[in-house]
Design brief:
Helix content is 34%, strand content 27%. It has a seven-stranded mixed sheet with strand order 3-4-5-6-7-8-9, with helices on both faces. It has 258 residues and is an alpha+beta fold. The termini are far apart. It folds into two domains: 135 residues, Fructose-1,6-Bisphosphatase, Chain A, domain 1 (2-Layer Sandwich); 114 residues, D-Maltodextrin-Binding Protein, domain 2. Helix 1 runs antiparallel to helix 2, helix 4 packs across helix 7 and helix 5 packs parallel to helix 6.
């Protein structure tokens, strides 16, 4: 089955991350403060594209590195982040993942996210639910007061620094605690599994959240822009992923903090 083949490729890419620190990590600067890319980001992306193209030769690719950003188109399109959590990866923080989503006519059909350090494999097929290592997962049905909240604040996106930390403070005061993991894809997946009640970030690229967006929706949660609108797969946007009750409360808090 095509999805099993994709999972196999993603897990092999994850092995490349896991073993990367056996050799020197070559780091390059990208535009913005503390915005990095490594040789491994590029190598893993090349590996993914090469092998995924064998599975679906007709597919387009929207990927983070090297300007490989084709249009979603009217057919299949893979949306790829070879290492989500690159700064974590550079410092051997062991909280990074491979993220691969498959869209059809601009709509997510399959998502696969793999953290090789913990051997956590999150998957979802449109209409078939979400799984963690083959077991069904579900977002929380409880409110913020009974959940952890998470947020993202990339150092190279400083325009909304005051706003995101104001919002994080409000989430902190209305939840059991706040977390910032450094990998949007994994933090959204933790919403899907119920470990996080909510995750918010004010600017993300599609490859950061495409696969995870399907996983959280199939787990019974909800994902939108921070303002409550529809997310986009062809351009960056803000992200608010949460269990349904947490989402309602989080949107209200964001509006109060503006």
């Amino acid at each position: 089955m095509i999805y099993e083949e994709i999972i196999g490729v993603v897990k092999k890419a994850g092995e490349m991350i896991f073993h990367a620190h056996e050799e020197e990590i070559t780091v390059f600067d990208k535009e913005g403060t503390s915005n990095f890319v490594t040789k491994h980001d590029k190598d893993i992306q090349s590996f993914l594209i090469s092998h995924l193209r064998q599975i679906l030769p007709e597919a387009n690719f929207l990927a983070e590195e090297d300007g490989i950003q084709q249009e979603l188109g009217d057919g299949y399109c893979f949306i790829i982040d070879p290492i989500d959590g690159t700064t974590n990866f550079i410092f051997d923080y062991r909280h990074s993942c491979v993220s691969v989503g498959l869209a059809m006519r601009g709509k997510m059909q399959f998502g696969c996210i793999y953290n090789p350090y913990t051997n956590e494999l999150y998957t979802a097929v449109k209409g078939e639910g979400a799984k963690l290592n083959g077991k069904e997962i579900h977002s929380t049905e409880k409110g913020l007061a009974e959940n952890l909240a998470a947020f993202g604040c990339a150092r190279y996106n400083t325009g909304d620094t005051c706003r995101i930390f104001d919002y994080a403070k409000r989430l902190y005061l209305n939840s059991l605690g706040i977390r910032e993991g450094g990998s949007a894809a994994l933090d959204i997946c933790r919403v899907a599994s119920g470990a996080n009640g909510v995750y918010v970030e004010l600017l993300l690229q599609p490859w950061d959240y495409a696969a995870a967006s399907l996983i959280v929706m199939e787990a019974g949660g909800f994902i939108s822009t921070a303002e409550g609108g529809m997310i986009t797969l062809d351009k960056p946007c803000s992200i608010l992923a949460a269990g349904r009750q947490c989402w309602k409360e989080a949107v209200k808090l964001l509006h109060e903090s503006c």
